[in-house]
Amino acid sequence: MSKYIFVTGGVVSSLGKGIASASIGKLLESRGLKVTILKCDPYLNIDPGTMNPYQHGEVYVTDDGAETDLDLGHYERFTNGAFSKNNNITAGRIYYAVITKERRGDYLGKTVQIIPHITDEIKASIKKVSREHEVDVVIVEIGGTVGDIESLPFLEAIRQLRWELGEHYAMNIHVTLLPYIKSCGEQKTKPTQHSVGRLREIGIQPDILLCRTERSISLEQREKIALFCNVDVEGVIEAPDVKSIYECPSSFKVQGLDALITKRLNIKTKDNDLKEWENYVVKRVRHPKHEVTIAVAGKYIQLADAYKSIYESLIHGGIAADARVNIIKIDSETLEKGKVDKAFKDVQGILIPGGFGTRGIEGKIKAIKYAREKNIPFLGICLGMQLASVEFARHVCGLKTANSTEFDKNTKDPVISLLAEQHQVTNMGATMRLGAYPCKLVKESKSFAAYKKEDISERHRHRYEFNNEYREVLSAKGLVIAGMNVERDLVEVVEVKGHRWFVGCQFHPEFQSKPDKPHPLFRDFVAAALTV
Ligand code: GLN
């Protein structure tokens, strides 16, 4: 039977609950335990797939094609557990399931209520994850901040679960903030006391507090927090700001967090072992030998979270090359009017991420043309690959008005277009080509050189595809069709012949990169940039 760790957050949002949960997962795995992590989001969307990146940040895609919260990206990067659509529960999904059952008559004439019907559905969804992955420990992160109306049914559900499971089967960790007030030179514990107070009002007593702080917590402060929040002094753990998120597991390890958890849950394990992680990932992130500058030209660059997995994957590529990757974020819209050579003056690699909608498209095409003509290493992801094909058609094959039908429905040369199956689609949610698909690589390609194998599997999230009617024209002029989905006859990877390193992929490699296992395309892209 799995044991459960419930992670809640208080005082303010953006405290890094996701990284904290992922770090706990990492530490427990290093003790030989099998772990999975689950995110509960209190909003009413069924999934974040239809949300604007400004609302939500990146939409992370799992192998089984679920569009999920970006915290799942952190979970996958830190741990080796299996993740599926069941690892992200939203209030929308829970309500949808309950209302569907109500319409079917499953509740046999009863009044359907938040307690017990919604809370039962939440509990069942949490337990389902433990059964599906057969793990020792399920870490359940509750999104939002304690005190929100929206998260109440989730908090009630985990309260009940802890009561049902008993002492050694469930525990609560609360992530909170200790603000430092400069004018009086003091670290304040009151917001934490209030937050824990709110939790206790609804019957949840945290076992451990993870305190986000800029400065270290004195023993006196620890004792005060412990006394007023009703936790043991050693249960007051510091979560300081660190240079890299990959240092978090070590920072918790030295404070004995994992030992505290295994003791509290009564689990016998070997000692933790983060040696490889610390000697490879942390060391190289902190003290890299080299340095390289990569430009990411997209339309959501103001938002740190919009291309989260891409930024992390670039860092992973840097770890493999023992290099610091300086990321320059360029607004693709400004490239439309501005000078490209000025924007890319000090840049050794150019990456065009995925995206939707017309804004900034021509700027991205200018950037791709520059990378192709100046022999600058280039990685185009999803929309980036589609636009690389359009750019090649326009400027190498002379198809001047070539475009994707996403941006010009009536283009004379639809190099990128919709498959017939997508024409019938009317719903926006979960209707793209989603999740893992196989791809066969061509042996004489940069991609094969990176993966060192022909058969790969990568995750997708798009509607439009490379139009096979243009394969011959573009190949004849030097666009290498380097990867195909054989079964469905779809182009997955394009490269430019004779270029130092120019790869466009229809899939999202950034969803499968880990700091200790950098993705082959990111690894080789960063390595190629280092040779510029
Ligand atoms: N907008 C493009 C499509 O739907 C690309 C999507 C993406 O980059 N994720 O196919």
Report on this model:
The protein is built from 20 helices and 23 strands. By secondary structure, the protein is α/β, with parallel strands linked by helices. It folds into 2 domains: 3-279, P-loop containing nucleotide triphosphate hydrolases (Rossmann fold); 289-530, 3-Layer(aba) Sandwich (Rossmann fold). Strands 13-12-14-15-23-22-21-18-19 form a 9-stranded mixed sheet, sandwiched between helices. Helix 8 (219-229) links the parallel strand 10 and strand 11 (236-240). The longest helix is centred in the N-terminal third of the chain and has 20 residues, at 114-133. The radius of gyration is 25 Å and the shape is globular. The protein starts with a strand and ends with a helix. Residues 354-356, 382-383, 406, 461-464 line the site of glutamine. Glutamine (GLN) binds next to strand 19.
Summed up:
With 532 residues, this protein is α/β, with parallel strands linked by helices. The chain contains 20 helices and 23 strands. 37% of the residues lie in helices and 23% in strands.
- Structural classification: alpha/beta
**Helix content, binned percent:** 25-40%
Q: What small molecules are bound in this structure?
A: glutamine
Within the largest sheet, what's the order of strands? 13-12-14-15-23-22-21-18-19
CATH superfamily of the largest domain: P-loop containing nucleotide triphosphate hydrolases
